[in-house]
Specification:
The chain has 248 residues and is α+β, with helices and mostly antiparallel strands. It contains seven helices and ten strands. The chain has a single domain, classed as Gcn5-related N-acetyltransferase (GNAT) (Aminopeptidase, 3-Layer(aba) Sandwich). The strands form two sheets. It has a seven-stranded mixed beta sheet with strand order 1-2-3-4-5-7-6, with helices on both faces. Helix 1 runs antiparallel to helix 4, helix 2 crosses helix 3 and helix 6 crosses helix 7. The two termini are 31 Å apart.
Length: 248
């Protein structure tokens, strides 16, 4: 990657953080305890233990926090570690923003910081997972960042007991972000398009009607998993629908 691309990526990350009203920096060991508590507040259970965060950071992994620019309070955490192929890829394990600061652009700022961090270290790709039922994440990842969906994995984490996933399975889309690809670049069409609907607000539905939320899990598992596993590719996400095209 050229120095110009790396410099531009860091400038984009700084600008996004400024727009979001945060500063993003590596967590010191003492700060990992607050970071662990923040993630526990969001998921209702321990997600990444503070000693593990410190060990990952010491080994050179990506362990950062977003701090409010006005009061320097920790408002978001992101943890990633090196993945196969080594020297090329970072796997982003978890990212969380406190409720009072959502929809301020902090998620984008974290991703752009992660992108710049990777490029500065010669990495070209970031992978992560997300629940295909969460439409806002699909819109952000597929529509805004332009990630490629690599796989649909049923019960990726097994049965989870946290406040977010408990009782609803842990199906995940595994995605990869080509860091040389401009944000939101549309993928060229290759064949007939299929639209697969996702719920508009699965979090609210899980609280109001768990049975209906479970039915959505079964529906998307049936409609997405076999197609992605047999060569269909996700080319977009629009109006709560996954757009798929069959490979030639």
């Amino acid at each position: 990657m050229t120095d110009t691309v790396v410099t531009s990526a860091r400038a984009d990350a700084i600008a996004a953080a400024q727009r979001a009203g945060v500063t993003i920096r590596a967590l010191a060991p003492a700060q990992t305890w607050r970071a662990g508590a923040l993630l526990t507040e969001l998921w209702g259970t321990a997600v990444v233990e503070p000693p593990l965060m410190s060990a990952l950071a010491h080994s050179g992994a990506y362990v950062v926090g977003a701090f409010s620019a006005d009061q320097d309070d920790l408002v978001a955490v992101c943890v990633g570690y090196f993945s196969q192929p080594l020297g090329d890829t970072l796997h982003s394990h978890v990212a969380g923003v406190i409720p009072s600061h959502v929809r301020r652009g902090i998620g984008l700022a974290l991703k752009l910081d992660q992108r710049a961090w990777c490029l500065e270290r010669g990495l070209n790709r970031i992978t992560w997972t997300f629940d295909p039922l969460v439409a806002r994440n699909a819109a952000f990842n597929i529509g805004r960042l332009g990630v490629a969906v690599d796989a649909y994995v049923e019960d990726f984490y097994g049965e989870m007991a946290d406040a977010v996933n408990g009782g609803h399975g842990s199906d995940r889309l595994v995605v990869g972000w080509d860091l040389a690809r401009p944000l939101g670049t549309p993928r060229p069409p290759s064949g007939a398009t299929l639209r697969v609907e996702a719920p508009a607000d699965i979090e609210g539905l899980r609280a109001a009607d768990p049975a209906q939320a479970a039915a959505w899990r079964s529906r998307l598992r049936t409609e997405l998993a076999p197609r992605i596993g047999h060569g269909w590719r996700v080319t977009g996400f629009d109006d709560h629908h996954y757009l798929l095209e069959e490979s030639a």
